[in-house]
């Protein structure tokens, strides 16, 4: 596994995401890494993240998949260009679509392992397939289509004029 | 719009969901209602729920759609049987799959309106299509396949023996 998380390369203005921003004190602060050709993130749910007692709510699973996959999209695009993630021009990706299949109840007490693999990479689009595992069992599978954010939209989204 | 939310009919053991449980003090406490043939829920994001400053993170959108739709599935199943949602036998639904298309950045400062409509209803499965709107504009569309929880699984999920 790489030492530094994808999210640790992001400039401050892209580090506020509730799911994976290192500067969001109330957020989940998910961190994603390369592990060979796969990306991986570990997450320990809290008691409040339940659907029913003992099981994780579906929106958390969707959030973990979404944040792992948009981070993976950016990391894969930089890797394709042979550049480190903190070099210019910045490559940022947003989710065009997210699909999650919930296969089994996800236990609340266990550390979750979220893994992604890039299945398509073009100049403006990255497709990532993901799975969420607990106690060695796949509880959910997901697919994210991430698209590169044009610079004009970057400025709008960060509030710059 | 109906006066009482779907979630206000749930027994206590099904009222802990982070997204929509009335007993989850740290959760979002989404409440869903019938408005004619559509279900509707309103939600005001907090500052922490950002993706980048000014826009809602994708996992929140997924959560709102998921919780509106599983509630709608239960409400639709009771309505089909001509029963109130607090009558026995209980009908509980879980998400088999969730799909979200993100159409535009969702503003963080605005109240979000999430609407669902049942497109398929069988004895064990309900399909719901949803949309998330802000400032009169559709920002995301979603589709949830919800399946009825067998009683044996109910007991496992609530920790009863």
Task: Summarize the structure in words.
Two copies of one chain form a homodimer. Chain A is an alpha+beta fold. Chain A has a single domain (6-155), classed as Hotdog Thioesterase (Thiol Ester Dehydrase, Chain A). Chain A is built from two helices and six strands, in the order E-E-H-E-E-E-E-H. Chain A has a six-stranded antiparallel β-sheet with strand order 1-2-4-5-6-3, with helices on one face. In chain A, strand 4 (112-121) and strand 5 form a beta hairpin. The model of chain A has no long low-confidence stretch (mean pLDDT 93). Strand 3 (93-102) of chain A pairs antiparallel with strand 3 of chain B, so a sheet runs across the interface.
In short:
Chain A is α+β, with helices and mostly antiparallel strands. Chain A has one domain (6-155): Hotdog Thioesterase (Thiol Ester Dehydrase, Chain A). Helix content of chain A is 19%, strand content 32%.
CA radius of gyration of chain A: 15 Å
CATH level 4 superfamily of chain A: Hotdog Thioesterase
Q: List the total number of helices of chain A.
A: 2
Side-by-side strand order of the widest sheet of chain A? 1-2-4-5-6-3
What oligomeric state best describes the polypeptide chains here? homodimer
Major sheet size, sense and barrel closure of chain A: 6 strands, antiparallel
- Mind telling me the CATH class of chain A? Alpha Beta
Shape of chain A: globular
Topology as H/E string of chain A?
EEHEEEEH
Largest protein interface, residues of each chain: A-B, 44 and 44 residues
Named CATH topology of chain A: Thiol Ester Dehydrase, Chain A
**N-to-C CA distance of chain A:** 39 Å
State the domain count of chain A: 1
Query: Which residues of chain A sit in consecutive blocks of at least 5 with pLDDT less than 50?
Result: none
Output mean pLDDT of chain A: 93
What is the strand content of chain A? 25-35%
- DSSP summary, beta strand count of chain A: 6
Helix/strand class of chain A: alpha+beta
Helix coverage percent of residues of chain A?
10-25%
